[in-house]
Amino acid sequence: MTEVVAALIFRGEKFMICQRPAHKARGSLWEFVGGKVEPGETKEQALARECREELAVTVKVGRLFCDVTHKYPDITVHLSLFLAEITEGEPQLLEHSDLRWITTAEIPLYPFCPADTEILEKIAASFGA
User: Is 67 within 8 Å of 80 (Cβ atoms)?
Assistant: First the structure.
């Protein structure tokens, strides 16, 4: 099983989602910024590194919001989603093809990676209107 971390970053009532590049697995689907935990890293360290690498921002990693395990045809991931706050920088598209700030009401407008479905339901239940 692959350990993956992701960030739930809010700006006011909206949260950040990123679109995977078309050439990657699950290409063009939407997801949260993040990635794989490398050997010797804590989940928090991995998330801070991924945010730097993918968005050129510094984040303060907060509490674990939720975690899920999802089996794709090619990989099984254990995804831990942390609340995070950008403390330095403005997000840049270094790896993703697009970035949006959306409300919980806008979730159905975007095709997300299947592993995020359960997480999005929890976000809507926790932060929805």
Answer: yes
Residues 6+ apart with CB under 8 A from 36: 2, 3, 4, 46
CA–CA gap between residue 93 and residue 78 (Å, rounded): 25
Identity at 4, one-letter amino acid code: V
- Which domains are assigned to the chain? 2-127 (3.90.79.10)
Sign of CA dihedral 87, 91, 118, 77: negative
Cβ-based neighbours of 53, under 8 Å, separated by 6 or more:
35, 94, 95
26 φψ region: left (φ > 0), alpha (ψ -120 to 50), beta (else)? left
Alpha-carbon distance values, 102 to 8, 16, 21, 76 (Å): 12, 7, 19, 27
pTM over 0.90: yes
Residues 45-58: tens digit of each pLDDT: 999 999 999 999 99
Strand partners, 101: 16
